[in-house]
Amino acid sequence: MPPPPGGRDHGGAERGRNWRGGGLDDVSHRILVLDGNADHAKTLTAWLASEGRQVIPATSPAQAVSEIETCLPDLVVLGSCPRGNGSRPFFEQLSALQADRNVPVLLLAREGRESDVTEGVFYPDDVLLGPLSMPQVTARVRSLLKTKALADRLRLAYFHLDELSGFTETYADQIVADWRPEDLAARMASVLLSPREGTPQRPSFIWGSAVIRGRRHGIACYRTNGDWHSLVTRCPSGELEKLLRPYAIAPGRFICNAPLPGRLKAVLGVSPELSLPNFAAIFREDDALLAAGYPWEVTIHDLPLLQASLRQWSVFRRIWREARKTEEANFQAMEALALAAEFHDSTTAGHVRRLNTYARNLSRLLGQSSRFVRWISHCAQLHDVGKLTLPGSLLNKRGPLDPGEWERVRAHTVNGARLLGHSPQLAMAARIARHHHENFDGTGYPDGLAAERIPLEARIVKLADVYDALRTERPYKKGYSHQEALEVLAKGDGRVLPVHFDPSVLEAFLSSHRDFEAVFDGDRTGAAS
Question: What pLDDT score does 512 carry?
Fold first, then answer.
């Protein structure tokens, strides 16, 4: 699964220049120490390295600039620093780090050098006046790094919430019922996990789930080497909660700063080889969200963003369910209307059911979208809704129709489109009702349209309707066998000609005609039993 527009994985030096995310008590931070006095720089390096931190000493502004360009520091400690024109690039870069990357600067002003504080070359985030001691310096460094870690996470939360808002706006313009929950989850995960230039690093794995009919259905998304992966998982309800219980910090809240355990990986569908340190999980009623692979130690400060993401996911799912319910109610009303249109005919129910299936299968063979397939499989049944305007005596007449009667029957196409009106939800059905008797060569009715001017859905229903009509016994004709109907469609019989059909639709039908035979024969067998 590709990252969304604007998202990319940074590698090499570019990754180094991205945000570094350290935990509140993480000792892996990178600290740049600049002191023109080599002995002082050595002492400061020893003090800070004693806590396991990565310390990069520099004795000149030029050396400090070079170190910054190699990899961004999390904190800059300044001792005595040469002034003059040669130091200007360093102080400019230092100001940019403070403003753009939230990198704090600690100034150590030794006794007699208080002027360093007020010189105005730059504005430190904190100042320590000498004489200095190791406990004093290391404690202040820890405090600044904790403040930075919290500020970074707050900034990351702002980025996430802004991205989720943009995600919501994108989907607000789409038809909710067309979403697939797994696609929605994957795209939402890519928003949360995709690195962005100038933002803190993010977790590498996210898993969302909901309990459906006693089983927890989940969707896992993760990023490895810049590539996106997603998979669907299922497990018994309660199993995940049981495995997470040792890491509970509150009801429905879980935190662990060790690698994801093997049994938990198995439930989440994660490869045992995938390294996922530092994880957090949150549960809300039947919904759950778990994130892992944080590049920092997880704390309670990481839970609000998970909570906000889970709430938004839950809202999307509720909207989707309600939209599908509304859509299903529309489909049921459409079926009732279709049956009413041909209430005079005892074979109508089977014809309506089969036509929907034919149209759905043909649409899939033609590579149409899932929305098109779903809607045509319900709209096809309304092709003859205009027959509601005709008397049953005319529709069931055994003998030939006179010219006046024939014109009345042909009008059912226009009348059907009028009955369905201008509702967007019935637009496809209206097009089918009006145009399913058009011929691809332009000899059909009511408008004499030809080729692609005939809506695709009408071209599909045209063939499906003719096949089913050939197979079905009527008061005025016998039903054809499948082979006989196939011969008529492929070669014509004088009334029905191959040029009446869209060649691509006809080809799709002929290539899978046995499937259509099975639909008709199976439906008739089921009705007889």
Answer: 94
Same domain, 305 and 180: yes
- For residue 179, how many other CB atoms are within 10 A of its CB? 20
pLDDT tens-digit readout, 130-183: 788 899 999 999 999 888 887 877 777 666 666 666 666 666 555 555 666 666
- For residue 488, give every residue at least 6 positions away whose Cβ sits within 8 Å of its Cβ, in sequence order, or none: 470, 480, 496
CB of 485 closer than 8 Å to CB of 467: yes
CATH code at position 273: 3.30.450
CA angle 208, 211, 216 (to 5 degrees): 70
303 and 254 fall within a common domain: yes
State the residue for tokens 């529709």. Answer: 395
Indicate whether 387 and 497 sit together in one domain.
yes
Q: How many domains does the chain have?
A: 3
How high is the mean pLDDT of the chain?
81
Domain identity same for 483 and 360: yes
Report residue 125 as tokens: 């985030």
The sheet with strand 105-109 has its strands ordered as: 54-58, 30-34, 75-78, 105-109, 126-129
- Please indicate, yes or no, whether residues 27 and 94 belong to a single structural domain of this protein: yes
* Residues of the domain holding 245: 175-317
The verdict on 138 and 186 lying in the same domain is no
Give me the residue label for tokens 């639909």. Answer: 519
- 428-433-434 Cα angle (round to 5): 100
Do 412 and 296 reside in the same domain of the chain?
A: no
- 494 in the same domain as 378: yes
Contacts of residue 424, defined as CB under 8 A and 6 or more positions apart, other chains included, come to none
Give the Cα separation of 489 and 466 in Å (integer): 8
- One DSSP character per residue, 138-189 reads HHHHHHHHHHHHHHHHHHHHHHHHHHHHHHHHHHHTS-GGG--HHHHHHHHH
User: What phi and psi, each to the nearest 5 degrees, are found at residue 248?
Assistant: -70, 135
CATH number at residue 126: 3.40.50.2300
Q: What is the pLDDT of residues 51-76, one digit of tens each?
A: 888 999 998 888 888 888 888 899 99
The mean per-residue pLDDT over the stretch 29-35 comes to: 89
Average of pLDDT values for 230-238?
86
* Distance linking the first and last C-alpha atoms of the chain: 48
Lowest mean pLDDT: which of 61-65, 79-83, 147-151, 487-491?
A: 79-83
